[in-house]
Amino acid sequence: MCNLRGGAAERLGSEEMDQDTDLQKAIARRSEIIEKLKKELIRRLNLRYSPEDLHEDVSLLGAGLGLDSLDALEIVLCVESCFHVRIPDDNIAVLRSINTLVDFVIKEQDSRNKQP
Q1: Whole-number Å distance between alpha carbons of 111 and 8
Q2: Topology of the domain comprising 7-114
Q3: Helix 7-45 crosses helix 69-83 at what angle (to 10 degrees)?
C-alpha cells in the first residue's frame, strides 16, 4: 500500500478539489443554458409548456413537440441571438433536441474562447 505524505497528499487533495470545482462550474453553466433556452423557446414559439415540462431529450421537430420548418428557423435565430453562436445551414442535426442544442452552444462558445 502506498501512503502519500506531506506535500504530495496536499497537492493531490487540491487537484481533486479543483476538478470538483470545475465539474460543478460546468454543470451550473449547462443548467443555465438549458433554462435560458427553454424559456426563450417557449416565449418565441408560443409553446403552451413551462420550462419544467420540456424534457431535454424530447425531439424538437416532428413527433416530439410537433414543430415545423418555420419553427426550426425560429430556433436557429433564438440560439444565434441568445448565445451568440452561428448554426451552419447544413447542420440541422443540432436541432434534434434541447440537449443537442446545448451541446452545440457549449462547444461553439468554448472554441471561440480558445481562439487568440
Answers
A1: 34
A2: 1.10.1200
A3: 130
Q: How many Cβ atoms from other residues are within 10 Å of residue 47's Cβ?
A: 16
Cβ atoms of 99 and 59 within 8 Å: the answer is no
Q: Which three cell numbers stand for residue 66?
A: 410537433
User: How many residues comprise the chain?
Assistant: 116
Distance of alpha carbon 116 from alpha carbon 85, whole angstroms = 17
The per-residue pLDDT for range 43-101, each reduced to its tens digit, is 999 999 999 999 999 999 988 899 999 999 999 999 999 999 999 989 889 999 999 99
Strand partners, 61: 67
Q: Which of 21, 66, 30 is nearest to 47 (CA)?
A: 66
